């Protein structure tokens, strides 16, 4: 009880620093989640096209009409085409020569090479490819145009093989991936700040001469600091229900919550170990940057693992954050929740628990050796 009272006293003394740091971390995690979730939204845009049709035949007019339905036509002085492309006033320039039908669909184009230009190019090539195919048959222009439009208007039947709320699961995975940084940074900074007050020479000597052994003292410190870790986890959990939405009320939401709870305990154990190793308060910020930022970048919290170099992903296997984030990615792809499909997740959870036990054991060993040197 003495250790717990001392913990509360130190926490109260540093309450403003702790409060501001928690608010900043939660805001950072929420802001990044909002930014990342917006990248899943796609809105088609019409490319701006300047077209000169010198042929005026039936096929070239149909091509012009086809493009007009899908692109925004811009009126322009032909002499200013290059400048217009450079300044993005237009994205694509098409010249249909008078010999369009004789040359079997020959056109001249200029592009500024951006996304809209590529989209206009795709529309043009789709029409011309069909024209080239049907031109090989003994068909009139009217028949060719009819067959081209039949092919262009044909729809592909798509069978949805999954009933998963992929958008909701992606949002949940993204939100809880960000928790890697929030939990590590919050626990390491605040807990190291608090425990460093226990590690002063005067308090250390009093602890040594007391009847309390180092294992019990470390256990009480771990449990006391666990209150802050649970508080931080609870705030993040509440925000997930508010921001992620309905998916958090399903079995998938429960899996994300349990996975994050285990990682919160790991962050707590790691923070207590680091506070034993480092007693200098000025070094805490550096430790937060190395541990929290480093693992978040290397393990896919900020940048998805699919975009990371293979060498970086292999190296990240030695970090506990990898298994936490990997679980988040596995959960969002679960079609069936049973033992065979959950096995990779359970293996990762087992590894996280092993890391927790390792940090606790190493902390006890280091504490014992440091007591001997006092």
Overview of this protein structure:
Helices cover 68% and strands 5% of the residues. With 374 residues, the protein is mostly helical. The radius of gyration is 31 Å and the shape is elongated. The two termini are 25 Å apart.
- Quaternary assembly: single chain
Shape: elongated
Structural class: mainly alpha
Beta fraction of the residues?
Answer: under 5%
Q: Please state how the strands of the largest beta sheet are arranged side by side.
A: 2-1-3-4
Secondary structure elements and their pairing?
Layout: H1 2-13, H2 15-37, E1 48-53, H3 58-70, E2 72-73, H4 81-86, E3 92-96, E4 108-111, H5 115-135, H6 141-153, H7 166-198, H8 201-209, H9 214-243, H10 251-277, H11 284-299, H12 310-315, H13 320-331, H14 339-373
Parallel strand pairs: 1-2, 1-3
Antiparallel strand pairs: 3-4
Helix pairs in contact: 1-9, 2-7, 3-5, 5-6, 7-9, 7-10, 7-11, 7-13, 9-10, 10-13, 10-14, 11-13, 13-14
Concise summary:
The protein has 374 residues and is mainly alpha-helical. The chain contains 14 helices and four strands.
